[in-house]
Amino acid sequence: MNQTSPQAPCPVIAVQDLAKKYAGKRVVDGLSFSVSAGEIFAFLGPNGAGKTTTIKMLTTLLPPDEGRILMNGIDLATDPMEARRHFGVVFQDCTLDPAMTVQENLWMHCAFYRIPRARRPERIAHVLALFALTDRRDSIVSTLSGGLKRRVEIARALLHQPALIFLDEPTLGLDPQSRRVLWDHLQLLQAHHGTTIFLTSHYLDEVERYAQSVAVIKKGRIVTQGAVAAIISHTAHASLEDSFLSLTAEDGAADDETAG
Amino acid sequence: MIDVLFSLWLRQVRGFLRARGRVFSALSQPFLFLIALGLGFAPVFRKAGEGDYFAFLAPGVIGAGILFNAVYSGADLLWDRQFGFIKETLVAPVSRHWILLGRALGVASVAMIQAIIVGAICLIFSASLPAPGALALFLLFALLIAVLCAFFGSILGSVMSDAQSFSQIVNFIITPVFYLSGAVFPLEGQSGAIRVMAFCNPLTYGIDGMRGALSGHYVIPPAFSFLVLSLSTLFAAGVAQIAFSRIRP
Questions:
Q1: Does the distance separating the beta carbons of B7 and A95 come in below 8 Å?
Q2: A213-218 vs A221-227, strand pairing mode
Q3: Whose CB among A196, B92, B101, B192 lies 3.0–4.6 Å from A112's, allowing a Cys bridge?
Q4: Dist CA A152 CA A156 (whole Å)
Q5: Domain that holds residue B199
Q6: For chain B, what is the domain count?
Q7: What is the pLDDT along chain A (260 residues), one digit of tens a residue?
Q8: What is the pTM (predicted TM-score) of this model?
Q9: Residue A228 near residue A214 (C-beta atoms within 8 A)
């Protein structure tokens, strides 16, 4: 949908007619959207709407049944290894090794992404400083608080300097102070490094404050997408949360999240 | 890719060495076997004219230690699947083949560390030092068992989904593998059914190879044992690759 015109800038993510079935049920049903470079893009939906399944497909963990995903112009179906070099991921659940130190986790990530050994100390020191974690480098991960773990995960995801970072519920379970610190870091990242941020969140006040674009998904289909202000205005509500609730009213929040 | 293999190998070894309880149980379990079985069966063994039961049992117990340690490491994989770390490896630009191989080599190394320490203590108590060639052959068979069991553990860790029932199911599988390997009793003179089951068990070839390397008495020709163990390891590696490639976190 996006990369056909030679004049148009190539979006960081271009998704076309994406679909995924579980046990005969289409949990993702023909999604099409694009994410521009350098923006904070929020992918919203009630539980079970298909957000996590979509993120798994975007991050190559799940193969789609139908559709196409281009990441920086690279087709995920034909060259997933190359595409993986272009993004970093922070999943909803912690994916650090709890028995290793912060530095050991970061060092392992450098090995996975083939960062030359000579450059690793500098890269690790840089991301640790960026997220105010320098004094925690030798801490065993299992001893860190939830907020610190989340910061380590984001720092790790940036080590290979990706153009795009996926954040699945980045502030879930964090106290207000940790959430604020995290958002400050993410804004810094966007402003100074031009990193594109693709995130899911149920904290819609945060999304309204920090995101530039939004897509709302319901039962595996996009019900609206565009700039945050435009969506609020279009639905004639006072906040993104009210807009979201009206757009997803049939689903409610109690849907069973069996696959999504 | 060497760097990725080394990182995953180091993770397994480091994880083992940092878990003091695991180190203690991995090293003490073989000696508990030696003491319990050795004290119980040594007089019967001697009366039957079979010689020193401790010398017979030690290679079997070392092999059993490798078996239990490496197969139970499948729980680490299951744990990584349930608690997230596997996702970090699966979204990295690294082939799953290398990830599995790095893990398996780490698991095999941990099992070998245990085998070498237990073997060294047994040699000190026996006050005998085998020839370097015999020792090398012993270690080769131990390594083959370790790699085979590491891949077998990876298969279980890839296909099972319930961490709580993992130990019960693994016990159900590996207890007969251990007892039907010739680790605790000689296969010569056993009934046909026992011998058939033992010779269908790859561990039998490893235990016999280890025991024969030290005593010079083989039930199975060592070259044949080497062939069976190598083919079993390749087969397990292939099945493990298929199982691991189907993991959907």
A1: no
A2: antiparallel
A3: B92
A4: 6
A5: 2-245
A6: 1
A7: 333 444 556 789 999 999 999 888 899 999 999 999 999 999 999 988 889 899 999 999 999 999 999 998 899 999 999 999 999 999 888 899 998 999 999 999 999 999 999 999 999 999 898 888 999 999 999 999 888 898 899 889 989 989 899 998 888 877 888 788 888 888 888 888 888 999 998 889 889 989 999 999 998 999 999 998 898 888 888 888 888 888 888 644 444 443 34
A8: 0.84
A9: yes
Nearest C-alpha neighbor of A67 from the set A21, A36, A24: A21
- Tell me how far apart the alpha carbons of residues A2 and A12 are, in angstroms, rounded to a whole number: 10
Given B4, B18, B248, which is nearest A112 (Cβ)?
B4
Residue A10 dihedral angles phi and psi, to the nearest 5°: -70, 120
Asked if A100 lies within 8 A of B11 by C-beta distance, the reply is yes
B5 contacts in chain A (CB < 8 Å): none
Predicted complex: ipTM over 0.90: no
Strand partners, A13: A35, A71
The verdict on a CB contact (< 8 Å) between B91 and A117 is no
Calpha distance B51→A158 (Å, rounded):
64
Alpha carbon B164 to its chain centroid, in Å, reads 22
Q: Which strands sit side by side in the sheet containing A13-22, from one edge to the other?
A: A25-35, A13-22, A66-71, A74-75
CATH topology classification for A1-86+163-170+196-251: Rossmann fold (3.40.50)
